[in-house]
UniProtKB/TrEMBL annotation:
<keyword id="KW-0804">Transcription</keyword>
<feature type="region of interest" description="Disordered">
    <location>
        <begin position="259"/>
        <end position="285"/>
    </location>
</feature>
<dbReference type="InterPro" id="IPR036390">
    <property type="entry name" value="WH_DNA-bd_sf"/>
</dbReference>
<keyword id="KW-0539">Nucleus</keyword>
<dbReference type="GO" id="GO:0000981">
    <property type="term" value="F:DNA-binding transcription factor activity, RNA polymerase II-specific"/>
</dbReference>
<feature type="domain" description="Fork-head">
    <location>
        <begin position="13"/>
        <end position="107"/>
    </location>
</feature>
<dbReference type="InterPro" id="IPR050211">
    <property type="entry name" value="FOX_domain-containing"/>
</dbReference>
<dbReference type="GO" id="GO:0009653">
    <property type="term" value="P:anatomical structure morphogenesis"/>
</dbReference>
<protein>
    <submittedName>
        <fullName>Forkhead box protein B1-like</fullName>
    </submittedName>
</protein>
<dbReference type="GO" id="GO:0005634">
    <property type="term" value="C:nucleus"/>
</dbReference>
<dbReference type="InterPro" id="IPR047389">
    <property type="entry name" value="FOXB1_B2_FH"/>
</dbReference>
<dbReference type="Pfam" id="PF00250">
    <property type="entry name" value="Forkhead"/>
</dbReference>
<dbReference type="InterPro" id="IPR030456">
    <property type="entry name" value="TF_fork_head_CS_2"/>
</dbReference>
<dbReference type="InterPro" id="IPR001766">
    <property type="entry name" value="Fork_head_dom"/>
</dbReference>
<feature type="DNA-binding region" description="Fork-head">
    <location>
        <begin position="13"/>
        <end position="107"/>
    </location>
</feature>
<dbReference type="InterPro" id="IPR036388">
    <property type="entry name" value="WH-like_DNA-bd_sf"/>
</dbReference>
<dbReference type="InterPro" id="IPR018122">
    <property type="entry name" value="TF_fork_head_CS_1"/>
</dbReference>
DNA sequence: GCGTGTTTATAGCCTG
DNA sequence: CAGGCTATAAACACGC
């Protein structure tokens, strides 16, 4: 694996692992989840190296998604046709990379292991799913809140469940990599002070639904033939959306799909006791507003 | 058939 | 050096 280093990478292999690249793609999206095809697109857009031998690396990437517990699968709603599910980061994988660096993981994320990044974050898969939904609710509400009180909370983007709380951010940390999108002069047009696309604030939506041409409104890849600038992220805005899909999806890792009681786990009375509940909700069922409000109360 | 997702196997590199 | 992490390949299943 090439080391990050002095010169440029140009079309050479980036220093990021597939896990890192996938995490970047997911994190780059305000909704914190992407379908496989969008993950592909994200990587190919940013790293010319991955525009070739797609069969090889995409197979590896799929392997990583399935093999690593740090990725959770979220099904599409029945009324959202399309291939495959969405992929999100496990809420507990925030400390997966040392200092948040994407160069190499210090430890392999394992469901059930001891993760200290978020004491509220559960370790069991089913709990993780519930936690994920809770965080999603927070995210959406914070977006709405930001829309109502602009300008404010530039750190709104960092409400992600996998963001490190504060303090040192490694140069390769996802915040530092992705944040470039929001800091570059040319890339601010679509974003508010909260870091969300404005239309997203008003109508939280699923990022994968944006039209095919939307992503290419900015300049062509600034890195083409050049480098990845400082660790690599060009300045394209991603995950624009023009549609509304207000419903929070249901995570379904194999162990999650059969676990009853996920929605109940989000109730105000038992936010962290997701196991052992009953009466599963149908996939795609919308969360009641009360659940969202409780999520904010937690926040 | 194709895209997606899972699983197994193997090899190389890195870290403790 | 052992174990962990990562990359790669391949086989297979499933749904559209």
């Amino acid at each position: 694996m090439p080391r990050p280093g002095r010169n440029t990478y140009s079309d050479q292999k980036p220093p990021y692992s597939y896990i890192s690249l996938t995490a970047m793609a997911i994190q780059s999206c305000p909704e914190k989840m992407l379908p496989l095809s969008e993950i592909y697109k994200f990587i190919m857009d940013r790293f010319p190296y991955y525009r070739e031998n797609t069969q090889r690396w995409q197979n590896s990437l799929r392997h990583n998604l399935s093999f690593n517990d740090c990725f959770i699968k979220i099904p599409r709603r029945p009324d959202q046709p399309g291939k495959g599910s969405f992929w999100a980061l496990h809420p507990n994988c925030g400390d997966m990379f040392e200092n948040g660096s994407f160069l190499r993981r210090r430890k392999r994320f394992k469901v059930g292991g001891a993760q200290a990044a978020d004491p509220l974050a559960p370790s069991k898969p089913q709990d993780a799913a519930a936690h994920y939904l809770q965080q999603q609710a927070k995210l959406r509400l914070s977006a709405l809140h930001a829309a109502a009180h602009l300008p404010q909370m530039p750190g709104g983007y960092n409400l992600s469940p996998v963001s490190q709380p504060s303090g040192f951010k490694h140069p390769f940390a996802i915040e530092n990599i992705i944040a470039r999108e929001y800091k570059m002069p040319g890339g601010l047009a679509a974003f508010s002070a909260s870091g969300y696309p404005l239309h997203n604030q008003l109508a939280p939506a699923w990022p994968h639904m944006y039209g095919s041409g939307v992503m290419d409104t900015s300049a062509p890849l600034s890195m083409a033939g050049g480098d990845y600038s400082a660790y690599g992220m060009p300045l394209k805005s991603i995950c624009h959306s023009a549609q509304t899909l207000p419903v929070i999806p249901m995570p379904i890792k194999p162990s999650l799909a059969s676990v009853p009681g996920l929605p109940q786990s989000l109730s105000p009375t038992s936010p962290q006791t997701a196991t052992g509940q009953s009466s599963p909700a149908a996939p795609g069922e919308a969360l009641p507003a009360a659940v969202l409000q409780s999520a904010v109360a937690v926040h």
